[in-house]
Amino acid sequence: MDTETKNLMQAPGLTELEPGPLPIIPKANFHEHLDAALLRRFEMQIEVPLLDAKGRGIILKKILGKDASDELIALPLVTSIRLAHRMRRLEFIAELEAKG
Question: Does residue 47 fall inside a structural domain?
């Protein structure tokens, strides 16, 4: 059993999947590595694809308030979001300092 499957199996409620009032929504980064027996326990499986450059650009534009550079968009999403937030924060600080 690989690490991804072991981690999911240790989640509360996954050792004995009994019908209940709330859905169980586990997440895995590497669906293809999960054990087939584990996957059969779920009625539904939804795969969410990674964002393409256009999608990353839209998210970054919302953070920055302007179009993001191609270099920023090319970075992994988590990295680019962190940098965009830092850039926005620095711009905000510069605006405050300029006002005196």
Answer: no
